[in-house]
User: What shape does this take?
Amino acid sequence: MNEKEKILSIFTKVLNGACLKKAVFSKSVSSNVIRCVCRVFASKNDESFLQLETFTSDNKAFHKNIPLSEAPEILTEMATHSYMQTNVIATDGQCEIKVSKKGKIFVLDKIAGSSPITETESHNRQKNYILASAPGHERFLYLLGLANESGRILDKKQSKFRQINRFIEHLDDVYSELPSDGELTVCDLCCGKSYLTFAVYYYLTAIKGRKIRMYGVDLKKDVITYCTDVAKRLSCTDLEFICSDISEFSCEKIDLVISLHACDIATDIVLGYAIKHKARVILSTPCCHHEMMHQIDCEELSFITKHSMLSQKLCDAATDALRCLMLEANGYSVEALELIDPDETPKNLLIRAILDPDARKQKLLSYRSQYESACRLLGVDPYLKNLMEEEKI
Assistant: This one.
């Protein structure tokens, strides 16, 4: 059996055995595609199908549904010709497929394929949360006030619980972009009460089994004291909370930077810090965009800006689009994604960035030129732009 036949048998095994959780295809051979995530769903008439969610370089996501009977051949073709890395996650193991630049295929299969998912995932059934599989997660949820002592999520905290779980799903989609060996350094900047800090900590340590060094940084002394106490009660010796301005926080190597709803230019400070330290992966959800509202001066867009509510929406989108461009100008592949169901919160954008060490200088200069042109058009001088210039990044 050659490697391609082996891959076909793996996809056949996990799909016929109903044990596929998801398959993540990354390092696309096409410059227009970033990655593809595949999951099994059930339609309203209970017929199962495979959904392919493809993320493109222009920050769009496309969905395609295919019959399970056709899926093994299609996924095999993707894994051997369209992407250079594929990670298959099943209920009882994982498989990694890599294709070298010369076309040689390497397969590391650790899937038994004997533990089917008890219920095929559907769009309408109760969701299986990633955090629920983390040993000891009930304890941290209780200590943070999200759950009662038995681990049941409090009714008034259901929205927050869904939010942090969705954030973990976005992290899970790009986990393969983090270093696969050694200790990971993780920073939650503007960590606040640290719901997300502890969620990511348990995801990486209890679910992924990684050794990490994690920091939560915030200016509020009371929340840092509170979170430090929770970390001690949970025996999280590799998790440290620091009361500090981000600019004064020192960390030599950073693999992952996360931030949940850092207000206004605090998001710029987070992104600037992550860029400066060349963080491998950045996950940041902005909120409370005020800066551009006080700066924007564009006659061509006055038909929008003369209406306060429309001007706010425009400034929110333009601010985050400029942030994405700045990240791209500094060698990151960037996606602007919906964090959670829009009914949950109006603060619903996630900026997800992955460092590309092989980014071409000409392309980076092009992104920088686009950034400068956009700033001139809008008549704005963003905080992030000045921060980059001060740091000489």
